[in-house]
């Protein structure tokens, strides 16, 4: 977070909170009224307008509290964007944060208003100037702590949510691993194994023909040699699907640049990594970027693409973008959901911004440490 604000800026926060106070009252009244009238459906449009207004108000107060305290005050609401009407209402109703925000609004009416008003009055009354200078930060910090306590999950709530997230991600990872094992088994069975069986049969026939038809036997041996090369190619393909050799040899930056070279559209790769992530993280991010680039080639109709890799504040960041048609939907296919599952196994996240008409930006973040420096900052267009 940036440097904590001084008394004057904190007083500005207090003044803004006072100005928003009537809006808080009106919004709470409409939320309660809409909730009561929902039984006769009249309250549904009221809730659809009042609850987003309450979210907006509380988000503004979260922002002021975060700046006052010097650290984030996250909302941690259940996702509801894009949901059907009644599903969205059900999500809001079972979201603990909705009830926390209503509780906050009721507490802010008597307590928060008094604290904000006191801060402003200390500035306006000339004889209390010294008290204002020293007292405003303490009063507003108390107000911000009250906002944080009500507008974000407590430590117990965060731990409970963390357990839920880990349980879901672990189940997804187990399912994904089982699917990967089935894919590898299928690829080996349909590819290398079938070729090796054919190889054995060809060599057997050649062995039978050597005594009476050496020329035919030599042709079969030549055919067996070709089959051996094809089987080796199948095995290399399977290995690339598990852990690409280029990733082990050149690291994440080099492997992504190799992906970009295979793209039909120009893709600029910019990297700023002072080392290499752990191998499992490196592999997960590599395959996630590969899926994003594949989507650019198949769906985006883009003229240009780009990939940015950097490591800051203990997190590996990868941004994949294109100037195509936009409109990417995470739920439209299995590829992007697979990316989310890969990253979730390492407590990673994926954000998608893809308005109609573009550009599309996919941001991947995974917490990790870097090993000894092997990769230097670079930039290039493939």
What features would you describe in this structure?
The protein is of the alpha+beta class and 382 residues long. It folds into 3 domains: 7-153, no CATH class; 162-242; 249-381, Histidine kinase-like ATPase, C-terminal domain (Heat Shock Protein 90). It is built from 10 helices and 6 strands. It has helices at residues 7-37, 43-69, 85-94, 96-124, 129-151, 155-209, 214-242, 245-261, 279-300, 334-344, and strands at residues 267-272, 305-312, 315-322, 349-353, 360-367, 378-381. Helix 1 (7-37) runs parallel beside helix 5 (129-151), helix 4 (96-124) runs antiparallel to helix 5 (129-151) and helix 6 (155-209) packs across helix 10 (334-344). The longest helix is centred in the middle third of the chain and has 55 residues, at 155-209. Mean pLDDT is 79; it is low at 374-380.
